[in-house]
Design brief:
By secondary structure, the protein is of the alpha+beta class. Among the domains are: about 40-95; about 130-255, Acid Proteases (Cathepsin D, subunit A, domain 1). It is built from three helices and 13 strands. A six-stranded mixed beta barrel has the order 3-4-12-5-11-10. A three-stranded mixed β-sheet has the order 1-2-13, with no helix packed on it. A hairpin with a 2-residue loop joins strand 10 and strand 11 (about 225-235).
């Protein structure tokens, strides 16, 4: 091929590409064409994503609060369980001491037939400086200075008191409670006001819900034992007894004989109780 022919062919190819390029570009599919982005839609999507993130953060905060509250309730339950185990261990040791004492008495030699049998001793109501009480007793509460029937319950951690028309209010920046106390033996009503020591949550036996109850401190006398103790307040009108005496009153102070009733009438003190364990 001559040199002139070579340059003529190259020129014709260049001219053909120049005219065919626009035609080929017009035939490209639409999805290959790059459009200018819609910034307003992008901003709206960013705002929606930010709102969703804020909602997730709020839900996370609520979940954390719920977990903290559950953690506190679990710790409180574990603490009460530990106290109950210690109480059970202490009662077991007390009963073992009593069993050993009975064995010692049974091992003593019996009196001979020539000697007259001694008179039976009077019933023992105080054992090792501890007041013996029955399953049901009358207790003296001060304030308000009344005697009420009570059930003795070694399974209850804290004592409980019947409180009708319970009303919580504030006095000098501290929570107080006002309630009506009813004596079921004579239906006498006594209005009582007391400062709230603390609040507790009590799980209901028939539901999974919990009830927030105020706790007050009152003087209580059973037999010759006079002390100050905490009482949870609730409406016990459906119960047989307005007062329930729990382990916070019995522990280290009394022994319970469930076969007896009303064997420790309260010796009403001349003055209000000062400290736990006075006699």
């Amino acid at each position: 091929m001559s040199l002139n022919s070579f340059w003529m062919a190259r020129t014709l190819r260049t001219v053909a590409l120049f005219f065919l390029t626009p035609l080929l570009s017009a035939c490209l599919p639409e999805y290959l064409l790059v459009e200018q982005p819609d910034w307003q839609q992008l901003q709206q999507r960013v705002q929606q994503q930010q709102q969703q993130l804020d909602r997730l953060q709020d839900e996370l905060g609520q979940t954390q609060q719920t977990l903290r509250a559950a953690h506190l309730e679990v710790n409180e339950g574990l603490r009460e369980l530990d106290e109950r185990q210690r109480d059970q261990l202490q009662r077991q040791m007390q009963w073992e001491d009593q069993v050993r004492a009975l064995r010692i008495v049974a091992a003593e030699p019996k009196a001979t037939a020539s000697r007259p049998a001694p008179a039976p001793p009077a019933p023992l109501r105080v054992a090792r400086d501890k007041q013996v009480v029955g399953a049901i007793e009358h207790v003296y509460l001060a304030p308000p200075g009344v005697v009420l029937p009570a059930r003795i319950d070694t399974g209850a951690t804290t004592s409980s008191l019947d409180a009708r028309n319970l009303e919580i209010f504030e006095r000098n920046g501290a929570p107080w409670v006002r309630f009506m106390l009813v004596n079921p033996e004579n239906n006498k009503e006594t209005l009582l006001e007391s400062r709230v020591v603390r609040f507790v949550r009590i799980l209901q036996s028939n539901t999974d819900d919990s009830e927030r109850r105020p706790v007050v401190e009152l003087g209580v006398t059973i037999g010759k034992v006079n002390q100050n103790a905490e009482f949870t307040l609730s409406d016990r009108s459906h119960m047989d007894f307005p007062v329930l005496i729990g382990r916070n009153v019995l522990l280290d102070m009394m022994l319970v004989d469930v076969s007896e009733e009303n064997i420790a009438p309260p010796h009403q003190p001349a003055k209000p109780a000062i400290g736990k364990g006075s006699k």
